[in-house]
Structures are given as C-alpha cells and as structure tokens.
TrEMBL record, chain A:
Chief place where the protein resides: membrane
PANTHER family registered for this protein in UniProt: MEMBRANE EFFLUX PROTEIN, PUTATIVE-RELATED, OUTER MEMBRANE PROTEIN TOLC
Gene3D superfamilies in the cross-refs: Outer membrane efflux proteins (OEP)
Coiled coil stretches, renumbered: 141-199
Signal peptide region: 1-21
Family of this protein: Belongs to the outer membrane factor (OMF) (TC 1.B.17) family.
Top-rank taxon, per record: Bacteria
UniProt cross-references to InterPro entries, sorted A to Z: OMP_efflux (IPR003423), TolC-like (IPR051906)
Entry protein name: TolC family protein
From TrEMBL, chain B:
InterPro entries: MlaC/ttg2D, Tgt2/MlaC_sf
Name of the molecule in the record: ABC transporter substrate-binding protein
PANTHER family registered for this protein in UniProt: INTERMEMBRANE PHOSPHOLIPID TRANSPORT SYSTEM BINDING PROTEIN MLAC
Length: 462, 205
C-alpha cells in the first residue's frame, strides 16, 4: 500500500511538473509588433472598411458598361383558336372576326424579352463617380494606416516597458541583496557594541528598508501586469513565456532635430492629412459628377422580344402583331434629361458644401497637428534634457559611492555616508532607466505625430 | 564592516577591469587591431586559467592569475597621479615605498572575486594618438553591463617599449582620479604621514 502511494505521489509530481513547464521564447521588437498587429481585432475591422471602399469602386465602374441589361421570360398554358371559315388559311385567321378559343386544344405559351442601355456620353458623370470612389478608397486606406501607426506606438511602448521592468527588477534584486548584507553588518556592529555604531543611523536604515520593500512590491506588481498584457497581446498559451530579445534599455540613437523638420514631415506624411486630402478629392469629383447630371445624357438603347405558342398560328401580315407568336428587335440612340432641376441644384449645392467642409477639415487638422507637434517636441526635448541631467547626477553619485567605498576600505569611512551614497546611486540608476524609457516613448510619439517611420529610431537607422 | 570591505573589493576588481595583461613582446605593437588582438588574447588566457565556476586554485595558480591581471599596470604613473604635487616633494625612498604599498593593495584586491573575470567583453572602440591609446569595452555578466575604459601609454618598461595601463575608467569613474581625491583629502586633513600609516595598515591586512 505504501509503495503504491509513493508511486502515485511520484506520478503526480511529474505530471504537475510537466503541466507548469514553460517554453521561453525571445521576441524581437519587430516580431512583437507583427504579432500584435496580427492579433488586433480593431485593425481587422478597419481592414473591412478598405474592402467596402474597393467594392464601391467596382460598383461604380460597373455602371459604365451596360448599366441596364435585362432579360425576362413568361410561360403559361393557353387554348388554341378555331375558325369557322374554310376560306382562310391559318396565317390569315386575323381576318376572321368570329375567331374563337379552342378549349380542347391546350399548349404552352412562351415569351422572352431582352433590353439593354449603354451610356455613350454623360458629360463626365460616370468617370468622375469612379474617381470619387477611388479617392474614397485611398482615404479608407490612409485611415487604416493611421490606426495601424497608433497600434504600433502602443506595442512599441509595451515592448519598451517590458525591458524597463526587467532592468529595474535586476537593480532591485541587486539592491535587496546589498540591503540584507548591510543590515547583517549593522546588527553585528550593534551586538559587538562598536564605537562607531550609531543607533539613529540604524533606525533610519530600517525605515529605508521598509520603504524600499514597498517600492519593490510596486515594481513586482507592475512586472506581473506587463507580463499579463504581453501574453494577451501575443495570445500566448500557459506553456509559453515570451520575453523581449533585448536585455537593456538604451536611449534611441536618432538625434532630436529642428522643429521645422518634424512639421514639414507631418504636413506631407501624416496619414490623417493624406486621408483628408483623399476625402477632398472625392468631394471634388463627386461635385463634378453631380454637375454633369444637369446636362442631357446620350444613351444607346437595345431591345428584343420573342413569343411562341404552338397551337396559335403565326400571322404573316407584318402589320398584325400576335402576342402569342412574334419576333421583334430594335436599337437606337436615346437622349435622357432629368428635368427636376431644383433637386439637382440642391444636390450640387450639397456637394459644394461637402467639398468646402473637407477643405476646412484639412486646415483644422493642420492646426491640430501643429499643436500636437509642439507638445510632442517639448516633451521629447525635456525628456532628453532629463536623461542628460540624470546621467550627470548618476556619474557624480558613482564617484561619491566610490569615494565612500575607498574610505571604508581604508578604515576611515562613515556608515551613514556610505549608505546615503548607495541609496542615492541606486535611486539614480532606476531614475535613469525611467528617464530613458520616457525619452524613447516621447521620441516615438514625436515620430508618430510627424508621420515618420517608427522602428528605425530603435535600430540605429534614423 | 566585513560587508563594506567585500563590497569595496568587488568594486575594485571591477575597477581593475577585466583585462590586465603581462608586458610581453606583443604589447610593443602600436596598431589598433594589434591592441585589440592582444586584449582578446589575454582575456582568453585569464578565462582559460580561471576554468569553470567553483574551481579551487593553488597558491601558484593564484599568483599566476594575479600577475596576468595586474601585469601591465604602471603603478608608478598611477601612484604619482594619485599623490599629485606631494609626490615630487618626497624622497626617492618614500616614493618607492608609496608605490609599493599602492601596488600591493591593488594586487591583493584583484583576486577577491574571480567570477568578475568571466564576464563577456565587447570592444567598442580603440583609438591611438601618438604614444597614447584608449580602449573602450563593455563587460557583461548576469545581464549587467559595465563600461570599462583603459588609458594606455606607450613607454619603456622593464627595458622595452610597450603599452602600459595608466588608468581604468570603470562604470564612468576614473580609478586614478578616485584615489587622487581620497589621498588628497587625507593629506589635506591629516597630512602625508597619516596617509602612509593608513596605507601600511591596509597593505598589511
């Protein structure tokens, strides 16, 4: 019995070990972006808008060739005809005013009709409608690009935040070990009753230790959250752990250029502007198409009709139409003119308003971009300065710490000064990582607002 | 204060850098690629001597490691810089004693944590200007990067012209500069004799 229990426990152990074993997969920033975009439902939704716009082009294009082309057939059972006059042949029955239905002779009646109309000249109404639809499709594509860029920004920020979290976690781990060692040494000094032991320094140190523990807990929670979001974005299963390929958070290499450089790029490259400009084109072509409807259109019309009923004889006289048996065809030029000028003028006016609306929208967008860019440029400049200043402060703190370490090694140091130097150096190391993260994300935002490519700044390609 | 001393020793080992090499004939070459090759060769030599983690070393092996690690430091130059104008005011005997104490302290500390020398070293840049050179490296271990720079001088040592290390800039902090600040502070507060006494105590540990 004991042996069986032991085997069961062993089996359970190995089963559970297998269940929780995770594969670690390193993901580059590019791969992370690609997978994030692939899994984004919002972009799938936006993609359908492009398909709808392309479908609209097909629809408008189809109206250029045989927009009206119909074919119909009719079928039924009809009685034959019988004449009481012997002097008339079957193809002369129309001469018999007393011709009667023959209720004993039934046959199938079949009639087929075909009609078509091909516009020949419409004053540009159709070609402008096609151009308007094409411009609308361009606008849809640019709107998609805008959504995609926004998503890319969020994904890159998420990727960078994971590296930041990893870096801070490493610093915390290092600092936690250092704090433990310091506490042990201080306790030893306290027990020994060392001359240079200061009780108040020890209290301060323990307060710092508690505060540090709270901050460490915050960072660990933040790390967990980042991992959960990563798993969601990558749709990772429980058996896979995705981590960033890069271990270190470095500042982006591209330098911050003059403001005008970003402004010029924004006006010419931003998807939002391109989408509005495409919308303006669509409105302009739509206006032209609407104006064309005021003029007569030249159309080529064609029609054909055929009927056959076996028990009703065809009449040979061309002036006599027998609905049961006949064949006719016709084609010719048609001039069509809509005479509802009041409605047409109202439609033209609506189109003009729409065109003016898109023009103002572009101006408003340029104004908005100017404000956004100013904000983004200010943030990037400020965060760049912060990185530089923190770097300088960190260098000073390293020198200070080195000084205190040397003093201690030569037995002329002071506990409080060494602890203060270590605290400050640690704080500044963490601060520097955060400042780099802020700088990178601010530069990213600046590039997004300028319509510049996003990933090259992280690959030394700017 | 064992922790602080250990902490200092670990830091100093990092300070000393990953690659200090013996003054052999190869160090007489003055080309950038040759300097890099020599650094790489010595790095391999140290790593080969270190072996895998957990290796126990004999006294002979430790001495050999100490020689390779510290072999090409110009202690005289570094000590002179650290002491500043005071150095010139000293007698030759005092100067020699000071340099001996300084080198003893650095050599002793270099073997306190050998794992440091297992770090992966990447050479970022090597510049040579006349008789001076600067080697910029990144030492990476356990996902911690430490920039390590070496200032080199091409000068006569042990009868041959060769590259010698005159300063190590570890994690952006100059080793010679740190010693200079500390020594000057002690001299300013307590005088040169007190500094010598402190160094003697430290070297005797």
């Amino acid at each position: 019995m004991k042996k069986t229990t032991f085997v069961l426990v062993l089996l359970l152990f190995f089963c559970s070990y297998g269940t929780f074993a995770q594969d670690t997969v390193r993901v580059s920033m590019q791969e992370f972006i690609e997978r994030g975009i692939e899994n984004a439902s919002q972009l799938d939704y936006e993609q359908q808008k492009i398909h709808l716009a392309e479908n609209q082009i097909d629809q408008v294009n189809a109206k250029r060739y045989l927009p009206s082309f119909e074919f119909s057939t009719q079928h039924g059972v009809v009685p034959g005809v019988v004449s009481q006059r012997d002097d008339l042949s079957e193809d002369e029955y129309y001469l018999d005013p007393n011709l009667k239905n023959d209720w004993e002779d039934w046959a199938v009646f079949t009639r087929a009709e075909v009609s078509a109309a091909q516009p020949l000249f419409t004053w540009g109404a159709l070609s402008n409608a096609v151009k308007a639809a094409k411009s609308a499709a361009v606008a849809a594509k640019e709107q998609f690009e805008q959504q995609k860029s926004d998503l890319e920004v969020r994904l890159i920020e998420l990727y960078q935040s994971h590296i930041l979290t990893n870096e801070i976690m490493r610093l915390l781990e290092e600092a936690t070990n250092t704090i433990k060692d310091i506490e042990k040494q201080l306790e030893e000094k306290q027990e020994e009753g060392a001359e240079d032991f200061d009780e108040s320094d020890f209290f301060k140190f323990r307060i710092f230790k508690s505060e540090f523990a709270s901050r460490a807990a915050e960072v660990r929670e933040s790390a967990q959250m980042t991992r959960r979001i990563w798993n969601y974005v990558l749709q990772a299963g429980e058996d896979t752990l995705f981590i960033p390929e890069e271990s270190f958070l470095d500042p982006v290499t591209g330098e911050l250029r003059e403001f005008d450089y970003y402004r010029m790029n924004a006006v010419s490259n931003r998807s939002e502007i391109k989408a509005i400009e495409a919308g303006m084109n669509a409105a302009e072509y739509g206006l032209e198409a609407e104006k064309s409807r005021n003029y007569p259109a030249l159309v080529l019309g064609m029609s054909g009709s055929f009927a056959n009923t076996p028990n009703r004889p065809r009449q040979s006289n061309p002036f006599i139409i027998n609905n049961a048996n006949y064949l006719s065809a016709s084609f010719g030029l048609i001039i069509r003119q809509n005479l509802d000028f009041l409605s047409m003028n109202a439609n033209v006016e609506r189109r003009q308003l729409q065109y003016r609306q898109t023009k103002y929208l572009r101006e408003a967008a340029v104004d908005g971009i100017e404000l956004e860019l100013n904000e983004a440029y200010k943030n990037a400049s400020l965060s760049k300065t912060k990185v530089e200043n923190t770097d300088e402060a960190l260098l000073i703190s390293k020198k200070w710490l080195r000084q205190e370490q040397l003093d201690y090694d030569f037995d002329i140091g002071n506990t409080k000064d060494l602890i203060d130097a270590m605290k400050k150096e640690l704080e500044l190391r963490v601060q520097k990582r955060r400042d780099i993260y802020d700088f990178n994300t601010d530069m990213l935002e600046l590039h997004r607002k300028s319509g510049l490519p996003l990933t090259p700044i992280f690959n030394n390609e700017d | 204060m064992k922790f602080f001393k250990n902490y200092f020793r670990i830091s100093l080992i990092v300070l000393l850098g990953i690659l200090f090499v013996q003054p052999v004939d190869g160090w007489a070459q003055r080309d950038v690629s040759d300097i890099k090759q020599l650094f790489e060769e010595r790095d391999r030599e140290i790593k080969a001597l270190l072996g895998p983690k957990g290796t126990e070393y004999t006294d002979e092996q430790r001495e050999k490691l100490k020689n390779i690690i510290n072999g090409n430091i110009d202690y005289g130059e570094m000590a002179q810089f650290a002491l500043g104008d005071t150095y010139d005011e000293l007698s030759a005997d005092k100067q020699n004693e000071f340099v001996d104490l300084f080198s003893t302290i650095i050599r002793d500390q270099s073997l306190n944590k050998l794992d440091i020398y297992r770090a992966k070293v990447t050479y970022e840049d090597i510049t040579v200007e006349g008789d001076s050179a600067f080697v910029s490296t990144i030492a990476e271990m356990d996902k911690v990067r430490t920039p390590v720079g070496y200032e080199l001088e091409y000068e006569e040592k042990n009868g041959t012209q060769q590259w010698v290390v005159t300063d190590m800039i570890i994690d952006d902090v100059s080793t010679a500069g740190s010693y200079q600040r500390q020594f000057q502070r002690i001299i300013r507060k307590k005088g040169f004799d007190s500094l010598m006494e402190t160094l003697r105590k430290r070297a005797a540990r």
